[in-house]
């Protein structure tokens, strides 16, 4: 165990407060250091969120979005479904096309309007403590009862050979127009561009290097429910279903229900570290178990499910969001380890374990553990925000048994560039974990 102790000591010598908890699959403690201290976990918070969501909703849970006609109006009942993504079977164009088909099959080519029924998905779309200067970024995307494309819109930019680059809205297919332009330039330096959601159109601006290949950029929506409704109306119109004030006031009830599973959202949450998936699933947990789909309701529901799962949540622990983007979250390495043992190592743990990134192969671990014999053997969740770095998961031993670990590191938020060194120390710790007791 000397290599493990040296790695932890190296981190502490850099004034990085480090907590480490390690056990075998039966929960027997192999090593511990500051296991009861509270740390900001960064995106390791998503391990707790995924565990609580699966425990509360169950592996067979489905997000079910209901479309019905009442008094000539198309009503859509919110499910908080996070899986409406282009290029999948839940692509909004495909789903809304099915809705249009069901309307036309009933002779409803004109309807009086479209109304979104939000249910308990109320309140702010983002946690209050998220960085206010980053709310336009894809990783700060808003949540709610109705969200497409993980709360973002996607723009394509490519050279046109003229003064202005060719710009297009890729998704969602809302029919929104584009204002402004992006200028093609001959120098790579200073070529910066972006897009802004203006509610009924997208404004673009900036400079695009004319030798660059086609690129796609993601930007957070301002109002995801508006995008949802406008995209639905646009797709209905394309299919020949229009809004008309004199449409029949028929009430035929449910015409279509779209269902998706929990697994894809958990995989995006853990493998790709999707903040949106974590916050959205937490809100759905609140809606389903407490009839409160607000952010606060989701956080309360998560705390309750974790308490049910592990038996306790340590004093001093604090859950303020589901993604770990806030520095106000506080958890202990001990809580992380026990949660993983109870959930990822439990009866329904396969879906969680399969959702973790794999060292050297997938997700946020694709470029980690290079040059080691741990490629393909480590599955874990990474984490980083200013002042916090983390890595928690398990390593597979040669006999196919596993060892669980949680590494939480906190340091001064102004120390830029430190994380690359801490990631190497984390990998040293995991390598040492794999070597405990080896001959």
Strand/helix succession: HEEHEEHEEEEEEEEEHEEHHHHHEEEEH
Strand content: 25-35%
Q: Output the radius of gyration.
A: 24 Å
Overall SS class:
alpha+beta
The residue ranges in which pLDDT falls below 50 over 5 or more consecutive positions are: none
Count of separate DSSP helical elements: 10
Write the layout of secondary structure elements.
Blueprint: H1 2-13, E1 17-24, E2 29-33, H2 45-57, E3 62-70, E4 73-77, H3 92-105, E5 110-111, E6 113-117, E7 152-158, E8 166-171, E9 177-180, E10 183-185, E11 193-197, E12 201-209, E13 215-220, H4 224-238, E14 242-243, E15 253-261, H5 263-270, H6 275-290, H7 295-310, H8 333-342, H9 349-353, E16 357-358, E17 378-385, E18 388-396, E19 402-410, H10 419-435
Parallel strand pairs: 4-6, 5-14, 9-12, 10-12
Antiparallel strand pairs: 1-2, 1-19, 3-4, 3-15, 7-8, 7-13, 11-12, 16-17, 17-18, 18-19
Helix pairs in contact: 1-10, 2-6, 2-7, 3-4, 5-6, 6-7
Textual characterization of the structure:
- The protein has helices at residues 2-13, 45-57, 92-105, 224-238, 263-270, 275-290, 295-310, 333-342, 349-353, 419-435, and strands at residues 17-24, 29-33, 62-70, 73-77, 110-111, 113-117, 152-158, 166-171, 177-180, 183-185, 193-197, 201-209, 215-220, 242-243, 253-261, 357-358, 378-385, 388-396, 402-410.
- The protein folds into 2 domains: 2-60 and 262-435, DD-peptidase/beta-lactamase superfamily (Beta-lactamase, 3-Layer(aba) Sandwich), CATH 3.40.710; 62-261, no CATH class.
- Helix 5 (263-270) packs across helix 6.
- It is an alpha+beta fold.
- It has a 6-stranded antiparallel β-sheet, sandwiched between helices.
- The mean pLDDT is 96.
């Amino acid at each position: 165990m000397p290599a493990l102790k040296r790695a932890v000591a190296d981190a502490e010598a850099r004034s990085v407060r480090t907590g480490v908890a390690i056990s075998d699959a039966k929960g027997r403690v192999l090593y511990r250091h500051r296991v009861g201290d509270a740390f900001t976990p960064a995106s390791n918070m998503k391990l707790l969120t995924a565990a609580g969501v699966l425990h509360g909703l169950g592996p067979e849970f489905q997000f079910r979005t209901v479309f019905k006609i009442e008094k000539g109006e198309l009503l859509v009942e919110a499910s908080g479904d996070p899986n409406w993504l282009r290029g999948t079977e839940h692509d909004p164009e495909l789903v809304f096309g099915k809705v249009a088909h069901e309307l036309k099959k009933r002779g409803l080519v004109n309807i009086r309007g479209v109304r979104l029924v939000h249910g308990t998905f109320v309140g702010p779309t983002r946690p209050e403590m998220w960085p206010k200067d980053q709310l336009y970024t894809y990783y700060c995307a808003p949540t709610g009862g109705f969200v497409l494309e993980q709360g973002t819109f996607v723009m394509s930019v490519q050279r046109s050979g003229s003064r202005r680059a060719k710009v297009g809205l890729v998704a969602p297919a809302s029919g929104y127009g584009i204002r402004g332009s992006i200028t093609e330039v001959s120098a790579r330096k200073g070529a910066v561009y972006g897009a802004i959601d203006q509610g009924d159109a997208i404004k673009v601006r900036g400079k695009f290097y004319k030798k660059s290949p086609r690129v796609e950029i993601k930007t957070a929506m301002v109002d995801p429910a508006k995008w949802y409704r406008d995209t639905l109306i646009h797709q209905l119109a394309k299919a020949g279903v229009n809004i008309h004030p004199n449409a029949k006031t028929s009430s035929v009830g449910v015409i279509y229900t779209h269902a998706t599973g929990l697994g894809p959202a958990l995989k995006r949450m853990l493998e790709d570290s999707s903040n949106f998936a974590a916050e959205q699933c937490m809100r759905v947990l609140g809606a389903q178990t407490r009839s409160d789909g607000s952010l606060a309701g989701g956080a309360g529901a998560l705390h309750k499910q974790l308490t049910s799962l592990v038996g306790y949540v340590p004093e001093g622990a604090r859950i303020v969001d589901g993604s770990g983007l806030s520095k106000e979250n506080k958890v202990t390495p001990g809580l992380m380890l026990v949660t993983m043992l109870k959930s990822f190592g439990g009866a329904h743990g396969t879906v969680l374990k399969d959702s973790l990134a794999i060292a050297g192969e997938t997700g946020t671990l694709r470029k980690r553990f290079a040059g080691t014999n741990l490629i393909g053997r480590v599955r874990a969740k990474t984490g980083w925000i200013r002042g916090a770095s983390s890595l928690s998961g398990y390593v597979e031993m040669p006999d196919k048994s596993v060892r669980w670990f949680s590494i939480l590191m906190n340091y001064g938020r102004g120390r830029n560039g430190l994380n690359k060194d801490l990631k190497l120390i984390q990998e040293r710790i995991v390598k040492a974990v794999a070597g405990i007791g080896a001959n």
